[in-house]
Design goal:
16 helices, Rossmann fold, eight-stranded antiparallel β-sheet, alpha/beta, seven-stranded antiparallel β-sheet, Glutamine Phosphoribosylpyrophosphate, subunit 1, domain 1
Amino acid sequence: MCGIVGFIGDKEKKQILIDGLRELEYRGYDSAGIAVMDCCNISVFKAVGKIVNLEHKMKDVEFNGFGVGIGHTRWATHGKPTELNAHPHLGEFSYVVHNGIIENYQELKTFLISKGRVFLSQTDTEVIVHLFEYNLSLVEDCFNAFEKTINELKGAFAILLMTKKESDKIFFAKQGSPLIVGKSNLNEIYFSSSDAPLIGHVDDVIYLEDGEYGFAKLSEISIFKNFIKIDVAPKKLPNNKQFAQKSGFRFFMEKEIYEQSQVIADTMIGRVKDSLVHFEELENIDISKFNSIKICACGTSYHSALVGSYLFERVSKIQTSVEIASEFRYKEPLLHENTLFIVISQSGETADTLEALKMAKHANMITVAICNVDNSSMVRVADFSILTRAGIEKGVASTKAFTTQVMVLWMMALHFAQIKKVVNSEFIEKEILAMRESSNIIKVKEFYHEKVKRLSKRYLHGHGFFFIGRDVFYPLALEGALKLKEISYLHAEGYPAGEMKHGPIALADSELFTVALMPKNILHDKIKSNVEELSARDATILSISPIEFNLSDDFIKTTDTEHFMLEFFEMSMILQLFAMEISIRLGNDVDMPRNLAKSVTVE
């Protein structure tokens, strides 16, 4: 959600900024803009919609020679997606881009208006540039004015600001939203809110921490915290840009569904051994001191957390609860040091989950982050972290991140069970065998994809979908419904199959589509009975199972395996294909669905 880029140097700046913003498109946005300053002149361009609209506006413009530039992709929070509300925002002689939310913006705006400042947009961001210029009138030093400004802001922010008063610098600050800065071997300075735009330009970067701020000019990066200049050691930047290509697939989401076989194998490397599961990352956790586990997450990661709760209790024999992070933050939760606290996030920047993690840290709980992005905020804050190794996921609707999260949780459950000695060697051998097979089972077979493509044309209408399952297949039903909602815009709900009779079955008729997850290896007879009840009310049934179900209107036959988690992964892949093919038939943008963003960095 929202992206930031910045550059100081002699190279042509338009293309550097545009290319950087394009690398951040996956985060979701509804407008974009850049501002470039050379000497004392500032040029600004903004456009609503895709970056190509911004590029079209700038087709006859180049910015050669020394200068500084900032760029932004905006996902509307305060104010509608219009050019006026797009970043960068201007004062009289300065421009700013910002990710996050300024919680006290209304109070600041009222004060600044009383001082004669004129606002043009509806955004919270605009107060930053007006507050900076007001403070500059008081202290007459740009850095001191910037320092004073950020200390008056409340909320989350990553800020880049440039001003005609010191036209060779960019001022920056980080609090709760990611911001990265690096210097090239030509002494140019690059900024971004994510790794991707920096790859190929710099080798080492500084991942700014909360409360850090400063200024940069050619060949120099000065960082401060609590009014004191600090030294921060750079870290190596990853150099993998393979995600920039769709590799012949129609959409990134499709490519990522097909990649799951490989990334699940990558997730297991060095962790799943011949006779045990071992996490080097967790070697210093004494699992015996914990009598429970609490998992906190949002969205798709919440669904993987629910799967984990079944696995921890069944395999590790540890009481496990799961919390939606946005609710957890405000419920005044009881936090105990004998509870292991786990957060799950694809990006590692999800605002609500990150705040929940900080609450757990404040309560002296031992914390673990399961994440796909190294050096992300959660990875840096948590005591321990496990990378899912899914690779960069550009489709907004998460696929391979979900399955790798579930795989990590399954491995963790067995890892803890081994340490606690609550499982025998025969059980461990069976689990490891299934884990190794999961990479093959989730591989997309051509006949599956063709079957789903053909079926999808029959599910474009109706008054809604029920996805139903039991045990770990209940959170999978939730995830299947979420995938369909996200990219097709059709109403869908996930339910535990045994709950249908407690109200939802009242909706059953021929225009209600029921997607029934009916595994062989866990509660098959129970869910069969639940689906029969729906069929008796004339609901349209799509059953997914290795065992044929004669009341199905449509049937997808899955592989007959001996472990329920293998069935889980195969059905997960099928549900992802199902949502994608329906969305394609409806003519939607599969990778960038409306109103959604890849990384939700505001609450």
